[in-house]
Design a protein that fits this description.
Residues 207-376 form the Peptidase M16 C-terminal domain. By secondary structure, this protein is an alpha+beta fold. It folds into 2 domains: 14-240, Metalloenzyme, LuxS/M16 peptidase-like (Cytochrome Bc1 Complex, Chain A, domain 1, 2-Layer Sandwich), CATH 3.30.830; 262-445, Cytochrome Bc1 Complex, Chain A, domain 1. Helix content is 42%, strand content 17%. It contains 16 helices and 12 strands. It has helices at 5-11, 77-84, 96-104, 128-141, 146-164, 167-179, 193-198, 203-213, 229-240, 289-303, 308-316, 348-363, 369-385, 390-404, 409-416, 422-432; strands at residues 19-20, 35-38, 44-49, 55-62, 107-112, 117-124, 219-225, 262-268, 275-282, 320-324, 334-342, 438-445. The strands form 2 sheets. Strands 1-2-3-7-4-6-5 form a 7-stranded mixed sheet, sandwiched between helices. A 5-stranded mixed sheet has the order 8-12-9-11-10, sandwiched between helices. Helix 10 (289-303) packs across helix 15 (409-416) and helix 11 (308-316) packs antiparallel against helix 12 (348-363). The longest helix has 19 residues, at 146-164.
Length: 454
């Protein structure tokens, strides 16, 4: 009889209660409590009470990004589909959603990364019942015509052309191509250019992509702010409960070990400043939270304003406009980078050697423990100070949950930061920031008539 009960309830139209996890309490690392439930269909629903009278943030994270695009000729669809998710349904045709949410004054947007697609709405609690209904409807019942699809595909192509006018997209493409020979991180979130050009002919595949990845068991919902929890969960069960698709299972190719240094170079056809990127393939946050915390701290330790490299290259010798890192958390092993925007091409070797020398000192065990402690305190303080609104909280929670697969991924990251020791920092550099794993990318711009690069 127990085995038949779920089926009987389903046939009678009665939803099973959500499975509730014990609340994740507030702590010094993260000052807000997470209430997490999982619906029978697999949707994870996290509510976070926040002292924002009459205001809420509504964040939906789908664990799909360019990482999931394993089929040849089908790159860029995660980003493209972010656009299509605003096209409407039979209940709310295109434009209806924007009209309703606009009347309430919601700020509404989305973004796509290598690993996740995140949607957020931010506005008055008074509109939350309508927002829940509208969001559940589009995630369950998205509709769009082939002409609408083709128009948006051309818009995405235009977005690529706009981004390609600056050096950053080309640099990302060339660095990924040098670093990854098999893994889907080889292509950017935008996708390969030839695949973007072919998108208008991929209407049928787009419907497959929606059914494959926009599923409750591949999605996490975060509601942050001022709301009645019981009423919210009643509405969530009502509108999201019938959502019954299951996420696809695909095999993301593992990247083989790198056996020696690699290089890539870009001759940029327009005047700009020379660029240098130094990169190594390092563990992902999805598999190693401690290594993710180490890399977060390494950004400031090696290239931050208190680093010797910054003092030498930016302040004293003034050889670069800036140094930094493009590191961000990923599900799978990705890249730790050091970046420099040079003032003159003649200083490239000096800049590269200076940065690599700092890495060598670190690997040799020469760690400034006091400076590391200051960076850890600053990282924690900065992360907490950045949580100024429910939207800030929701996006941070959603980002880390999407990457790690855990609703409390952000809290675990914050808890890991102060626990990193000087020995761990040195050991990480010794294991991963090595010569045989090195990838060097250089960009040399076209010079002007006077020989300058500006």
């Amino acid at each position: 009889m127990r085995r038949l009960l779920p089926l009987l309830l389903l046939l009678l139209g009665t939803a099973l209660p959500a499975a509730a996890a014990a609340p994740t309490p507030a702590s010094d690392a993260f000052p807000y409590t997470l209430h997490t439930d999982t619906l029978p269909n697999g949707l994870t629903v996290v509510r976070v009470p926040y002292p924002s009278r009459g205001i809420i943030a509504y964040v939906t994270v789908v664990r799909v990004g360019s990482r999931n695009e394993v089929e040849p000729g089908r790159t860029g669809f995660a980003h493209f589909f972010e656009h299509m998710m605003f096209k409407g349904t039979k209940t709310h045709p295109e434009g209806d959603r924007e009209r309703i949410l606009g009347n309430f004054g919601y700020d509404d947007n989305a973004f796509t990364t290598d690993d996740i697609t995140l949607y957020y709405s931010y506005g008055p609690t008074a509109g939350l019942p309508q927002l829940i209904e509208i969001e559940a409807d589009r995630f369950r019942n998205l509709e769009y015509s082939q002409p609408s699809f083709q128009t948006e595909a051309l818009a995405v192509l235009g977005e690529y052309h706009k981004n390609a006018a600056a050096p950053f997209l080309k640099m990302e493409e060339e660095l990924n191509a040098a670093a990854f020979t098999r893994h889907t991180y080889q292509h950017t979130t935008m996708g390969f250019y030839k695949d973007i050009q072919a998108m208008p002919q991929a209407y049928d595949y787009s419907r497959t992509f929606f059914e494959r990845w926009y599923t409750p068991d591949n999605t996490l919902l975060f509601i942050i702010g001022d709301f009645d929890d019981a009423k919210v969960m009643e509405l969530v069960r009502q509108h999201y409960g019938p959502w019954d698709r299951k996420a696809a299972q695909v095999s993301v190719p593992a990247e083989p070990p790198q056996k020696g240094p690699r290089t890539a170079h870009i001759d940029w056809p327009q005047p700009t400043q020379p660029r240098q990127v130094i990169a190594w393939r390092t563990p992902g946050a999805g598999t190693s939270p401690v290594d993710a915390a180490i890399q977060t701290l390494l950004v400031d330790y090696l290239a931050g304003p208190t680093s010797p490299a910054y003092k030498t290259l930016v302040l004293d010798k003034q050889l670069v406009e800036s140094i930094g890192s493009d590191y961000s958390e990923h599900r799978d092993p990705h890249l730790f980078t050091l970046t420099a925007t040079l003032k003159d091409e003649r200083h490239r070797n000096t800049v590269r050697k200076t940065l690599l020398q700092e890495v060598s000192r670190l690997a040799a065990g020469r760690v400034d423990a006091a400076r590391l402690k200051a960076i850890q305190d600053h990282a924690r303080y900065g992360a907490l100070m950045a949580l100024e609104t429910p939207r800030d909280v929701g996006i941070q929670l959603g980002w880390y949950a999407g990457v790690t697969g855990s609703p409390d991924g952000f809290q675990r990251h914050l808890q890991s930061l102060p626990k990193v020791t000087p020995a761990q920092l040195s050991d990480f550099a010794k294991r991963y920031l090595t010569a045989n794993k090195l990838i060097l990318l250089s960009l040399t711009p076209k010079t002007d008539a006077q020989g300058g690069t500006k």
